[in-house]
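Summary of Year 1 activities. Much of the first year was spent building the evaluation harness for sequence design. The harness presents a backbone, in tokenized form, and records the residue chosen at every position. We chose the following record to illustrate the format because it has been used consistently in internal testing since the harness was completed.
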């Protein structure tokens, strides 16, 4: 079976597979409790459903007023409203008051580079982190991730709730991308290398131009009304 056929099978239930990190009960790879995650990410909580027990996903601050997350996290939350959404990638800009001073420093990881994931698990809203490599570039066919969106597959572990979390480059701790989810099997763009149950993330290079334009518009007040990303 060719790579394209496997992806079609994989994407028969796109919301189930990709959305599981925000709502479901699945995980892949290894991950640990984190003492540092709160420095880089925050949980998306719902005051009506006891925020101490449940997170709908994760947001990654990129400025004192705005954060990135996944579109599917926004759709799952009744507290988030997107300032802007990417036309091809599962990524959204939301308004969020954070302790971040100044703007985030970005750099896309190179193939084979060491990376760190930070996010929050859905159950008990626990801060998590994992380590791995940016192994291959790939593309997905999913409701919010179009084939035009180049992504990375990684062996870094993820658990439910880490969607929208941060991918940091271990070497210099610059923000390299946003966690999207995981898939059962994927190949590189050329179809030569196949990985089983990798996590996937959107590298900075795939949303750089959109983010610069979206932030400039939002900071100039040209965006519509939004809600805070958490119950704080």
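For this record, the design step produced the sequence shown next.
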């Amino acid at each position: 079976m060719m790579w394209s056929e496997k992806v079609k099978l994989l994407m028969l239930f796109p919301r189930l597979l990709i959305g599981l990190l925000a709502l479901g009960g699945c995980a892949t790879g290894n991950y640990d409790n984190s003492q540092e995650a709160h420095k880089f990410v925050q949980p998306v909580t719902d005051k009506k459903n006891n925020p101490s027990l449940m997170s709908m996903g994760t947001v990654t601050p990129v400025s004192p007023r705005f954060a990135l997350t996944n579109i599917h996290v926004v759709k799952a939350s009744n507290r988030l409203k997107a300032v802007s959404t990417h036309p091809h990638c599962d990524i959204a800009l939301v308004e969020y008051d954070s302790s971040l001073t100044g703007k985030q420093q970005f750099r896309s990881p190179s193939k084979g580079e060491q990376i760190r994931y930070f996010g929050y698990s859905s159950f008990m809203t626990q801060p998590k982190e994992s380590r791995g490599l940016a192994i291959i570039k790939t593309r997905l066919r999913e409701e919010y991730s179009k084939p035009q969106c180049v992504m990375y597959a990684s062996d870094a572990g993820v658990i439910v709730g880490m969607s929208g979390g941060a991918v940091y480059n271990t070497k210099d701790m610059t923000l390299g991308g946003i966690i999207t989810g995981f898939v059962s099997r994927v190949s590189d763009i050329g179809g030569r290398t196949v990985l089983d149950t990798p996590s996937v993330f959107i590298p900075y290079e795939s949303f750089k131009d959109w983010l610069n334009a979206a932030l400039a518009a939002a900071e100039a007040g040209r965006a519509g009304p939004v809600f805070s990303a958490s119950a704080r």
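The mean pLDDT is 81. Quantitative recovery figures across the full test set are reported in Table 2.
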